[in-house]
Write a structure and sequence with these properties.
4-stranded antiparallel β-sheet; two-stranded antiparallel ribbon; 1 helix; alpha+beta; 36% strand
Length: 95
Protein backbone atom coordinates (compact mmCIF):
# COMPACT_ATOMS: atom_id res chain seq x y z
CA UNK A 1 0.00 0.00 0.00
CA UNK A 2 2.83 2.42 0.71
CA UNK A 3 4.19 2.01 -2.81
CA UNK A 4 0.86 2.95 -4.40
CA UNK A 5 0.49 6.04 -2.23
CA UNK A 6 4.00 7.26 -3.10
CA UNK A 7 3.27 6.95 -6.86
CA UNK A 8 0.10 9.04 -6.79
CA UNK A 9 1.84 12.48 -6.62
CA UNK A 10 4.06 11.52 -9.59
CA UNK A 11 0.99 10.43 -11.58
CA UNK A 12 -0.76 13.75 -10.82
CA UNK A 13 2.36 15.68 -11.86
CA UNK A 14 2.56 13.83 -15.19
CA UNK A 15 -1.10 14.53 -15.97
CA UNK A 16 -0.70 18.22 -15.11
CA UNK A 17 2.50 18.54 -17.20
CA UNK A 18 0.68 17.20 -20.25
CA UNK A 19 -2.04 19.84 -20.03
CA UNK A 20 0.01 23.01 -20.34
CA UNK A 21 -1.52 25.59 -22.63
CA UNK A 22 0.12 27.96 -25.10
CA UNK A 23 -1.86 31.06 -25.95
CA UNK A 24 -1.32 32.88 -29.23
CA UNK A 25 -2.43 36.45 -29.76
CA UNK A 26 -2.80 37.92 -33.24
CA UNK A 27 -1.10 41.27 -33.79
CA UNK A 28 -0.84 43.42 -36.92
CA UNK A 29 2.16 42.49 -39.05
CA UNK A 30 3.99 45.72 -39.92
CA UNK A 31 5.60 44.35 -43.09
CA UNK A 32 2.88 43.49 -45.62
CA UNK A 33 3.82 41.62 -48.79
CA UNK A 34 7.02 40.33 -47.16
CA UNK A 35 7.99 36.78 -46.27
CA UNK A 36 9.63 35.94 -42.99
CA UNK A 37 12.75 33.85 -43.56
CA UNK A 38 13.61 33.30 -39.90
CA UNK A 39 12.21 34.19 -36.48
CA UNK A 40 13.24 33.72 -32.86
CA UNK A 41 11.75 34.85 -29.55
CA UNK A 42 13.25 34.79 -26.07
CA UNK A 43 11.61 34.58 -22.65
CA UNK A 44 11.87 38.35 -22.11
CA UNK A 45 9.46 39.31 -24.91
CA UNK A 46 12.10 40.07 -27.54
CA UNK A 47 11.31 38.84 -31.04
CA UNK A 48 13.81 38.93 -33.91
CA UNK A 49 12.62 38.37 -37.49
CA UNK A 50 14.71 37.98 -40.60
CA UNK A 51 13.13 39.22 -43.81
CA UNK A 52 14.77 39.30 -47.22
CA UNK A 53 17.90 41.38 -46.64
CA UNK A 54 16.44 42.95 -43.47
CA UNK A 55 16.38 42.15 -39.76
CA UNK A 56 13.85 43.68 -37.36
CA UNK A 57 13.41 43.29 -33.63
CA UNK A 58 10.58 43.86 -31.20
CA UNK A 59 11.35 44.32 -27.50
CA UNK A 60 7.66 44.11 -26.53
CA UNK A 61 6.22 40.86 -27.93
CA UNK A 62 5.55 42.26 -31.41
CA UNK A 63 3.80 45.50 -30.49
CA UNK A 64 6.52 47.73 -31.96
CA UNK A 65 9.27 46.88 -34.49
CA UNK A 66 12.68 48.42 -35.16
CA UNK A 67 15.21 47.79 -37.95
CA UNK A 68 18.49 46.39 -36.70
CA UNK A 69 20.73 47.37 -39.62
CA UNK A 70 21.11 47.35 -43.38
CA UNK A 71 21.71 43.88 -44.84
CA UNK A 72 22.28 44.62 -48.56
CA UNK A 73 23.58 41.24 -49.77
CA UNK A 74 22.74 38.89 -46.92
CA UNK A 75 19.72 36.76 -46.10
CA UNK A 76 19.18 36.12 -42.37
CA UNK A 77 18.64 32.36 -42.50
CA UNK A 78 18.60 31.47 -38.79
CA UNK A 79 18.52 33.34 -35.50
CA UNK A 80 19.54 32.27 -32.00
CA UNK A 81 20.07 33.62 -28.48
CA UNK A 82 22.67 32.54 -25.96
CA UNK A 83 22.17 32.49 -22.19
CA UNK A 84 23.20 36.18 -21.98
CA UNK A 85 20.49 37.12 -24.52
CA UNK A 86 23.01 38.01 -27.20
CA UNK A 87 21.64 37.51 -30.71
CA UNK A 88 23.38 35.37 -33.33
CA UNK A 89 22.26 35.42 -36.96
CA UNK A 90 23.30 32.90 -39.58
CA UNK A 91 23.33 34.42 -43.05
CA UNK A 92 23.18 33.33 -46.66
CA UNK A 93 24.76 35.39 -49.41
CA UNK A 94 22.67 36.35 -52.43
CA UNK A 95 23.91 35.13 -55.77
Amino acid sequence: MKKIISLIPLWILLIHAGHTQIIWEQVAFPFPDTSIISMKADNNGTIIIGLQKEVYYSPDNGISWYPSSDWPDYYPMCIGFNSSHQVFIGIGISA
